[in-house]
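Q: what sequence does this backbone want?
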């Protein structure tokens, strides 16, 4: 049986970094295939991951959850037939819905020897509140469908902010195992084992009942006819111990603004104080939008050489202003005018610029809403 690990995460959460860590530290010796589903026309991460020796099949024209569902099924079957892997890792688009990706895999699993092994969502601990408020339809779905939630950037967040993020995530999924330890303190094998665990510690506790008479632990999921208690009859009514299990119908409307128009051309006053953006939440639970209805992308290949200081100024503008659109994610790899190559990653208010190995050509990609393509071309000078 081929294991299928689906590792999702909103734009810029750190999915690729996590997958690199798992490939290097947890999946050595396995026949792996990684299926990436980039949003937009220019695939960046595939080049970064090829160095790990993993077969990559990129699909750049949309999301598994929308236009590529049919093509995805065909592609997955082809991967199985051609490579016969031990494990398939699927990295959906950052704006894909995890529940739809799972359904697409389950459809293929009906007549192939595969099983969904891992349903994981990577969440940026510093930006979860902003994404819930502004892009809840997509962000919340990834959280709610996950069996494991892995927080990134917990090494640079205050303890009270981390606690608030945990509380927020538990409102949307109180059953998932949530990993909060900084990744550099964990071995990839430990993360892989946690992702494959069926229940969280909290669920393990909830599945146990301590007998008030004998003090023994009785598991709710065990067959009561087979489990014996030394002091009382198990045919008695347990309802008094189970009432707390049914109080999980959270009101998700508390973050929603119901007075706005239902198109996506809303005004976005970009205020990221405490990681929260103040624009309208247009993602009601009763709507089912495709990612390309809400998000847009701009990407290009370029042979231009960039001065490092100039590129840094470009990234500062993209991360801190709305002059070029509501930029949620940008990444790229370009040739350095001083020699070598430069690679960058950007999310709201943050970016990282580092030296990199050469690629076949330079690539730039920007994802967000209300993207100003002409202004972006002028900004990058391409």
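A:
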């Amino acid at each position: 049986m081929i294991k299928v690990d689906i590792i999702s995460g909103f734009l810029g959460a750190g999915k690729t970094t996590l997958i690199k860590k798992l490939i290097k530290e947890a999946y050595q010796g396995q026949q792996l295939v990684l299926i990436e589903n980039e949003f937009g026309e220019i695939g960046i991460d595939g080049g970064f991951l090829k160095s790990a020796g993993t077969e990559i099949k990129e699909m750049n024209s949309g999301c598994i959850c929308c236009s590529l569902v049919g093509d995805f099924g065909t592609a997955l079957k082809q991967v199985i037939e051609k490579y016969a892997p031990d494990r398939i890792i699927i990295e959906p688009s950052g704006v894909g819905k995890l529940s739809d990706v799972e359904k697409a895999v389950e459809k293929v699993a009906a007549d192939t020897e595969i099983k969904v092994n891992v349903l994981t969502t990577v969440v940026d601990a510093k930006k979860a509140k902003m994404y819930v408020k502004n892009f809840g339809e997509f962000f919340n779905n990834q959280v709610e469908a996950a069996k494991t939630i892995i927080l990134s950037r917990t090494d640079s967040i205050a303890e009270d902010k981390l606690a608030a993020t945990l509380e927020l995530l538990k409102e949307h999924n109180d059953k998932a195992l949530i990993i909060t330890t900084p990744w550099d303190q964990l071995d990839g094998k430990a993360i892989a084992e946690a992702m494959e665990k069926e229940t969280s510690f909290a669920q393990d506790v909830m599945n146990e009942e301590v007998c008030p008479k004998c003090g023994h632990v009785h598991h709710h999921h065990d067959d009561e006819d087979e489990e014996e208690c030394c002091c009382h009859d198990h045919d008695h009514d347990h309802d008094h111990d189970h009432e707390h299990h049914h109080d999980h119908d959270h009101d998700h409307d508390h973050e929603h603004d119901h007075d706005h128009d239902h198109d996506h051309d809303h005004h976005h006053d970009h205020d990221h104080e405490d990681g929260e953006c103040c624009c309208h939440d247009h993602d009601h639970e009763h709507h089912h939008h495709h990612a390309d209805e809400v998000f847009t992308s701009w990407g290009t290949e370029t042979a231009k050489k960039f001065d490092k200081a100039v590129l840094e100024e470009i990234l500062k503008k993209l991360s801190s202003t709305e002059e070029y659109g509501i930029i949620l994610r940008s990444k790229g790899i370009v040739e350095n005018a001083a020699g070598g190559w430069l690679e960058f990653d950007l999310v709201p208010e943050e970016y990282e610029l580092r030296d990199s190995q050469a690629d076949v050509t330079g690539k730039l990609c920007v994802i967000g809403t209300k993207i100003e393509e002409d202004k972006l071309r002028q900004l990058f000078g391409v």
